[in-house]
Amino acid sequence: MGLQLQDIAWHQSVGRLIETLDKPLFWVALARLLQQYVPSDSWVVLLFSRDRPQVFAECPGDGGPDPLFQDYLQGLYLLDPFYIASREQQFAGLLRLADVAPECFEQTDYYQRYFRLNVVADEIQFNVPLEGERTLCLSLGACQPFSPEQIALLGLIQPWVMALMRQRLAFEQELLARPAAPAPAWQHRLESAGELTARELEIARLMLSGGSGKEIARRLGISAETVKVHRKHIYAKLGIKSQSELFALFLQAQQS
Fold first, then answer.
1. Is 94 inside any structural domain?
2. Shared-domain flag, residues 201 and 170
3. What CATH number is associated with residue 193?
4. Stretch 126-135: mean pLDDT, rounded?
5. What was the pLDDT predicted at 67?
6. Most CB contacts within 10 A, which of 92, 113, 118, 216?
7. In the predicted model, is pLDDT for residue 183 greater than 60?
């Protein structure tokens, strides 16, 4: 369905949505309105910060907590391209997976064991930067890649969506005031276990999130050959031989 500025149904729907700003089901109503124009299969509203993500609302499930999403909140979020992007540079607006995913993202254990099972195929995210290096995010996941037309449509209504997200914060003060759980100290555990340097830990995280050797080299201002040397040292210190084994150690560090 194409959306025009004179679309009466859209304006009526936004009017009704504004009336629910102070209601518990606001986020559900917003997600449903977006799905009328751009179909999606899942959604979640998160607050990204230096601590663990805080969940404002999520797509209703079939009953009981989603174990994959719980794994995400426990520590897998550290490998989420959207989370990494929000921490490296706060961005206001609409982000696509293609905008933030590293070159080798689809070959990572994170993608194979979490993303493609939980998010499935594609993800887009509305980002609202806040004070304190925090970002309010509304993410939509889909079984099929979002089309250029759908992305353009979301871009058209982006000002409405972001304004509503900001206005909703006035009614989320209890959650905003609640201390977030501290980020998992996996770096410290791997550092003590294998005596990894700060640079090696950084490269390990970039590897796990899908960065290719060339991408990591560009990001850190070093040569691709130096990245290879660091990777060799990381594997030797940790007594492993593959990135899958490194991912397994990463998971163990979240649980210990």
1. yes
2. no
3. 1.10.10.10
4. 93
5. 79
6. 216
7. yes
Residues 81, 105: contact at Cβ < 8 Å?
Answer: yes
Using the predicted structure, report yes or no on whether residue 1 has a pLDDT greater than 60: no
Query: Parallel, antiparallel, or unpaired for β 54-58 and 134-142?
Result: unpaired
**Residues 16-71 pLDDT 10s:** 999 999 999 999 999 999 999 999 999 999 999 989 999 999 988 665 567 788 88
Confidence of residue 201 (pLDDT cuts 50, 70, 90): confident
Terminal-to-terminal C-alpha distance of the chain: 49
State the residue for tokens 């179909």.
39
Does 219 share its domain with 96? Answer: no
Query: Where is 125: in which H helix or E strand?
Result: strand 122-130
Residue closest to 76 by CA, chosen among 117, 28, 132, 43: 117
Range of the domain at 235: 186-255
Residues 171 and 190 in one domain: no
Place of tokens 């555990």: 189
Domain count, the chain: 2
167 lies in the same domain as 225: no
In terms of domains, do 114 and 41 share one?
A: yes
Pairing of strands 54-58, 93-96: unpaired
Cα–Cα nearest to 7, from 38, 31, 37, 39: 37
Q: Taking the CB of residue 27, how many other CB atoms lie within 10 A of it? A: 22
Helix (H), strand (E) at residue 43: strand 42-48
Which CB contacts under 8 angstroms, 24+ apart, belong to 180-184? 180/47, 180/49, 180/51, 180/52, 180/53, 180/54, 181/51, 181/52, 182/51, 182/52, 183/50, 183/51, 183/52, 183/78, 184/52, 184/74, 184/75, 184/78, 184/253, 184/254
